[in-house]
Q: What sequence folds into this?
């Protein structure tokens, strides 16, 4: 039997399966975490190889969706406000003034937050970036 062409894989299927499970569970949030784990096991791979490993397992980096951190009391107040104003006319809404504050970062961006997910995965709470007013 003829050997398959190309270089042999350095990471075994068992290790790949473990890494896949850890990413799905949310234990490995970044490719850097998987890279450090593999280096701890004695694999000599670079960070870019860890990224390729994630992509070969059909994981894609996605941007976390921003969602306000609302308590049950916040939701109840929002619903009460909406119910109190549901019968307003267009003229009533024109008299209403909405204002919004602008947040300016002095020392650069807060950065974009990512998570790893497969195309058929459902959205998990850890895939959301919970935001609060003023930050």
A:
């Amino acid at each position: 039997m003829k050997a398959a062409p190309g270089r042999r894989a350095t990471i075994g299927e068992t290790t790949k399966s473990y890494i896949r499970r850890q990413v799905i569970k949310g234990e490995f949030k970044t490719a850097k975490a998987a890279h450090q784990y593999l280096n701890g096991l004695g694999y000599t791979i670079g960070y870019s190889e860890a990224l390729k490993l994630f992509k070969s397992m059909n994981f894609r980096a996605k941007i976390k969706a921003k969602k306000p951190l609302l308590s049950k009391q916040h939701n109840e107040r929002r619903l009460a406000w909406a119910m109190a104003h549901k019968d307003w006319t267009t003229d009533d809404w024109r008299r209403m003034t909405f204002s919004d504050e602008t947040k300016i970062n002095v020392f650069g961006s807060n950065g974009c937050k990512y998570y790893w997910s497969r195309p058929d995965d459902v959205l998990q709470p850890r895939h959301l970036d919970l935001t609060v007013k003023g930050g």
About this structure: The longest strand covers residues 60-63. The chain has one domain: 13-94+113-131. The beta strands are 60-63, 65-68, 114-117, 128-131. Residues 13-94+113-131 form one domain.
